[in-house]
Each structure stands twice: as C-alpha cells, then as structure tokens.
Amino acid sequence: MHKFDTLIRNGLIITAADRYSADIGIRDGRIVALGQELGEAEEVIDAEGLWVMPGGIDAHCHLDQPLGDGAVMADDFDSGTRSAACGGTTTVIPFAAQFKGQSLRTAVEDYHRRSEGKAWIDYAFHMIVTDPSEKVLKQELPALIEEGYSSFKIYLTYDDLKLNDREVLNVLAMARREGGMVMVHAENADCIAYLTELLEEQGKTAPRFHAEAHSSIAEREATHRAISLAELIDVPLLIVHVSGPEAIEQIRWAQGRGLRVYGETCPQYLMLTADDLDQQGFEGAKCVCSPPPRDPAAQQAVWQALENGVFQVFSSDHAPFRYDDPKGKKLHGDEASFTHIPNGIPGLETRLTILFSEGVIKQRIDATRFVALTATNPAKIYGLYPRKGTIAIGSDADLTLWDPQARTTVTNSELHHAVDYTPYEGLELMGKPMMTLCRGLVVSRDGELTGEVGYGRFLKCDRPQPARPRGMAKGF
Ligand code: URP
Ligand code: ZN
Ligand code: ZN
C-alpha cells in the first residue's frame, strides 16, 4: 500500500499567509504531509508551473431557493455545484429561506431534501430569517445554531423579506446570546419604494431605472443603521454584496472605531456598471440585481476596499434566473416594469477567475489576499476553519491548481450552470483553474467535470470565532 492516495508535486503553494514550494500528500481526503520528497502515492499530480491554492468557498450563492412569486431559480444543487467545481470552488454556502409564517426548521428540512444526493462539492447552509417570532428566536434558532447552521441573513428591504428595526434588534440580541453570524442585506426599503413610485409615475420602467430606484444613498443609510443597531447590542455583523463607496465608508468608519463589522463584495461590482442595465429592449434585465452595479468610480472604491482590508469576503451572490424564460427574467413578460424583474445574476463559475485575472494578475491585490478573500476568511467567518479554507496538515484536501499564464474568454456555452447567459460574455481573462480537488477527489480538470454527483457532503458549521461580541454591552 502506498503512503498517500494522491501526491501533488512541484507546485507553488499559496495560502492566506505564505507562499512556498512543497509537495502535498493526501490520504483519506485530508492533507497529511507537506514537504519535499515525500515518497510514493497511488496517483501523482505534477503541478510544475502551477499555483496550488485552497479550493474556493463561495459563501453567498442562491441555489434552488423557493421564491413564492412564480419565479424559479435555474440552478439546483446539481447544476450549481458542477458549475462551481469547474470554476475552482470546493464549498458553497447557499440559503435555506424561511417564508413569513413558516417554521425555520421546516425551511432547513426542505432545503436538505433539495440538496440530498445532488452536490458535486461540499456545502453548508446559511438561513434567511424573515419571521423572527418568539418561537424562532427562543427555540428554533438556538437549536439550529447548535446543530451546525451558525449563520443567517436578514433583509432591510423587499416587502416579503424585510424586518423592521425592532425585529432586527431582537435578532441581533439572539445572535449575541447564541454565537451566530448575522449577514445583512442593507438597502432602505422606503427610499426604494419612494423612488420607484416617482419613476413609475413618469413612465420610467425600463430595466435601467432599477439602478436609479436602488440609490446608493438607500444602501448607505441601511448600512449605517445596521451597524448602529449591532453596536447597540454589541454583536458582530457582516454587510453582504456592498456596491460602492457610500456603504464602504460606513463599514470603514465602524471598523476604525473597533467594531466587529465585516464586509462582502462580488464580481458584479467590479466588472459591471449601471450602464449594463441600459441595453437594447429588455436585455438590461440580465444585469438587474440588488444593490445594482454603480459607476467606474464605485468600481475603483470596491477595488480599494478589497486591497486595503475593508472587505473580508468575495462571493458571487449567484442568483440564477434564465433570461428568455417566463419563470426567469421574463416572469412578467419582456416589457415588464423593472420592479417585476427577478433580482440577481449568475456568477458561481466565473467568480474566482475574474478576481484572479483582474485582481492578482493585474496586481491590484496579491495572491495571498486572493486566498484570504475567496477561501480562508469565509471559512473563518462561517465556522468552517481550519477544516476548510487553508492548506495545512489535517485540513480537507480542497485544492485548486491555477495556471497563471492561461488565457480564457468567458463564453456561456462553456459554463456549466443552467442559466442561458452570463453578464461577462466575451470577457478575456488571464489565469485558469486547471484542476480542482474536493477532499482529494479531482472534481474538475481543465474546465471539465470529473467528479461524481452526490459526492458533496453537507457541512455543519461551528459557532464562528469572528461572531463573538467584544463584551461591551450592558444588560444582555
Ligand atoms: O439581486 C440579488 N442580489 N439577488 C439575490 C438575493 C440577494 O438579495 O442577495
Ligand atoms: Zn441580498
Ligand atoms: Zn444573495
């Protein structure tokens, strides 16, 4: 019997902290040796010229999420995780969403049924809390956090999802007591409703007006409010999908005051602007997401916040709706007001390559920060570290082998999701995930799937260390 199942030789290992040349010995899906001349293995992978990084963790994506308005997500756990694997991702964390009036546990159980036997890579669940009843706050959430669902998202906008400030406070106080990580969708619902009404009165209903209705001021206000409510309770929180400088300033201000406030951004805020919603006919619907992409100055601010550490997490916010589909972007036809277009864009498979090319290769961020943003920090913030998110003895052998010299052109027909478009069609990128291993199994090679459906395992998340309060609040 060989000492290792797999040996990865001659690669340059890059983690969030270090870069060094070493071989990696893998046994039973875990990393068991790092060093030179490690000996024999069942399978040897030659990584000469490649960078060996932790497999990506996409900590914000939506797969097969029931919506209740007739829209249907294009990707389930099968197509979503195959697409993720081909893009270098080895763990995804989508959302088990509660409908108002529904038990949260029912939502989680339903989501297990949707994922069971379908995933190509590992997965955990966040929850979405829309109805923080006494039962949810006192019984369901404490039990679910204990059982490995230790993070959840709340919304300050969307009529069917949003919480009022008192509800947010109740949720934050529960998170503080139980050690859960709170993610916030920060947009002011009333500002958006007011602007929407004005625009509709003037007949301004085309997709591009979505970006005007979802003003960056509405995002800034809600970001500041969420931070203030969390400060009052003394609990950490993470602002998701931050689009530009207004919200970034609020997060930086909070961090400067020593608050545990984390930030996430996504490829669309680097690569798209509001002009991408202004296309021929209804085409702009393809780029309708919330918050919307802004302008080139906002893109620069987002790059800077990735570089200087205001953001900890880089996720796709993959929210997959087919364009030419009455259950997708055309739910209400191709002349519908922007208010009726399902929000979200696809990006599971392109997330890493975009940041690698536009960030690392163009020297806006270094390779260790790339690893921190796309794997190590999400693992820490959501309670999966050090099992996931690093290259260390004892960690799962979740690895992506990158060729920094390879060139690719994004083409939807070559992606593995079930969406009929990508907003990045034709984009030329540098750097490619040549091979992805999830717990030692090669799940994709040169952009093609090599794993097994159902191989992906559900991961229970620990209470995250970054969710711990500072211990400043009185009376909780
Ligand atoms: O437009 C977006 N981002 N859709 C996905 C749902 C969400 O709010 O993250
Ligand atoms: Zn959101
Ligand atoms: Zn989302």
Automatic annotation (TrEMBL):
<keyword id="KW-0479">Metal-binding</keyword>
<comment type="similarity">
    <text>Belongs to the metallo-dependent hydrolases superfamily. Hydantoinase/dihydropyrimidinase family.</text>
</comment>
<dbReference type="GO" id="GO:0016812">
    <property type="term" value="F:hydrolase activity, acting on carbon-nitrogen (but not peptide) bonds, in cyclic amides"/>
</dbReference>
<protein>
    <recommendedName>
        <fullName>D-hydantoinase</fullName>
    </recommendedName>
</protein>
<feature type="modified residue" description="N6-carboxylysine">
    <location>
        <position position="153"/>
    </location>
</feature>
<dbReference type="InterPro" id="IPR050378">
    <property type="entry name" value="Metallo-dep_Hydrolases_sf"/>
</dbReference>
<dbReference type="InterPro" id="IPR032466">
    <property type="entry name" value="Metal_Hydrolase"/>
</dbReference>
<dbReference type="InterPro" id="IPR006680">
    <property type="entry name" value="Amidohydro-rel"/>
</dbReference>
<dbReference type="GO" id="GO:0046872">
    <property type="term" value="F:metal ion binding"/>
</dbReference>
<dbReference type="GO" id="GO:0005829">
    <property type="term" value="C:cytosol"/>
</dbReference>
<dbReference type="InterPro" id="IPR011778">
    <property type="entry name" value="Hydantoinase/dihydroPyrase"/>
</dbReference>
<comment type="function">
    <text>Catalyzes the stereospecific hydrolysis of the cyclic amide bond of D-hydantoin derivatives.</text>
</comment>
<dbReference type="Pfam" id="PF01979">
    <property type="entry name" value="Amidohydro_1"/>
</dbReference>
<feature type="domain" description="Amidohydrolase-related">
    <location>
        <begin position="51"/>
        <end position="440"/>
    </location>
</feature>
<dbReference type="InterPro" id="IPR011059">
    <property type="entry name" value="Metal-dep_hydrolase_composite"/>
</dbReference>
<keyword id="KW-0597">Phosphoprotein</keyword>
<keyword id="KW-0378">Hydrolase</keyword>
